[in-house]
Amino acid sequence: MDKLVIHGGRRLQGEVSISGAKNAALPLLAAAILAPGKHVFHNVPRLRDIDTTLELLTTLGVEVDRSGLEHDHTLAVDTANLKSHLAPYELVKTMRASVLVLGPLLARTGQAEVSLPGGCAIGARPVNLHLKGMEQLGAEVQIEHGYIKAQADKLHGAEIAFDISTVTGTENVMMAAVKAEGRTVLQNAALEPEVVELAEALVKMGAKIKGQGTEVIEIEGVKELRPVEHAIMPDRIEAGTFLAAAAITGGELLLKGARADHLAAVIAKLREAGVAIEEKGGGLRVRGDGLRAVDVSTRPYPGFPTDMQAQLIALMCRAEGLSVITETVFENRFMHVLELERMGANIKIQGRSAIVTGVPKLSGASVMATDLRASASLVLAGLIAEGTTEVLRIYHLDRGYETLERKLQAVGAEIQRVKEQ
Ligand code: EPZ
What we know:
The chain has 421 residues and is α/β, with parallel strands linked by helices. It has helices at 22-31, 48-60, 69-72, 89-92, 102-109, 128-136, 167-177, 193-204, 236-249, 264-272, 309-316, 335-342, 372-384, 395-400, 404-409, and strands at 3-7, 13-17, 38-42, 63-65, 75-78, 86-87, 111-115, 140-144, 147-151, 159-161, 183-187, 208-210, 217-220, 229-231, 252-256, 276-280, 283-287, 296-297, 322-326, 346-350, 353-357, 366-368, 388-392, 414-418. α12 (335-342) packs parallel to α13 (372-384). It is globular and about 65 Å long. The chain starts with a strand and ends with a strand. The model has no long low-confidence stretch (mean pLDDT 96). The structure holds ligand EPZ. Ligand EPZ is lined by residues 22-23, 26, 97, 123, 125-130, 164, 166-169, 306-307, 329-330, 372-373, 400.
C-alpha cells in the first residue's frame, strides 16, 4: 500500500487544472448501458473508481476502449452486446456506486443481479430508496444471499417521492424511468450538478426529462435511446479541495476549469473565513491570507457539501477562534478528526458536531486515511504541519483524486508518493 510523505510549511503558488467530476462520470458510464452502441466520453478523470466501473462494465459484456484515457482523458464504451446482468460482490464491495448499474440493466434487459453494497467508513448507506423506486416502476425486487435480484417484464411510469434527498438514488431511478412506459415524476429529487449532468446526457440520448436541478423531475418514457458523445464537467469537490489547500498554506492558486456556480456555498463559507476568491481566467483565483473561524452545517446541494466537511475541518484547525461544523448527511463522517488530533489539532466531537479550536501549529505525524475525503483533509493538514507527515492507506485518495501529489508538487508542495513494499 502506498503512502504520501509531506514536509509541511510551503505556500502553494501557481496553476492547477481541475479534472473531470468523478461523481458525474460514474453514473454516465452506467447510463451507456441504456443505449446499445458506441458512447464517447471526454474529460474522464483517471481514478481508481473509474477503473472499477470499467471492470464492472466489462464483466457485463461492454467493450471498453481506454486507449485515449492516458493522453486526452477520452473513453469509448460499446454497449451493443451485453452478456450478463450480474454485478458481483468482489467489485461492488470496492465501490458502492456500482449499484448505479441496477436501473440501466433493468431498463435495458428487464433483469439485474447486483450485490448489495455494504456500509462504509462514513455510514450504513442503505439503498432502500433505490429499491423502493424500482418497485414503484414495476420491478420485482428480492434480496437473496447479499444480492439485489430485480426483474421487470415491463417498467411503467410512477409518482415517486424520495423520503430523503439521495444523489445516486435519484440517478438510479431516473435511469430506470427513461424507458418506462408513460410518465414518471420524482419528488424530492436531488439537485446536485452531477444529477443535472446525467439528465442532460440522457436527453442527448433521446430521453424526455425536465425539471432536473429542481426537487421535481418529470420523465416521459421513450422506446429507444441512442449512444452519446459527452464531455464531463469539472469536479467541484476536487476544486473545493484545492481552494482549501491555497487557504491553509496562505498561498495563491488559479484553478483552471473550476466552476463557481457549482461551488457557491463553499466559496461563500471560505470568503467568510477570510479567503479571497474570484472568478478569473476560465476558473477560480484563490488567495489565503489569515483564517477566521466559521460555523457550518452540511446539507444536500445547494447547501455546503458533506464531501467538503473534512477539508473544512482541517482548515479550521489553523483558524483564529472556535468553529462548529455539523455533519447532517452521514452518521459517521468524523474519522479524520482522531487523526487530526494526533497532529495537535484541538477538536471535540459533540453528537453530530465537531467543535474546532484553532491552534498556532500542527505537528507532522503518521496518520491513517479511512475514506476518500478524510484522506484529503489529512493531506491538507500535512501541508502546513511542522516536520514530516505520512498519510497511509492512500488507495482511498486514489479513488477520487487524479494524481493529487503531482498536482500539489507542481505548485510547490514538498510531497512524495512512496510505494510500500
Ligand atoms: C453520493 O453518494 C456521492 N457519491 C457521495 O460522494 C456524496 O457524499 C453523497 O452523494 C452526498 O452528497 C456518488 O455520487 C457516487 P446519498 P450517495 O444517497 O448517493 C441516505 C465521495 O466522496 N440514503 O445522497 O450514496 C444515506 O445513508 C462520495 O465522492 C438512504 O437512507 O449518497 C445518506 O444518509 C462519498 N437510503 C443520505 O441518504 C437510500 O436508499 C444521502 O445519501 C439512499 C441514501
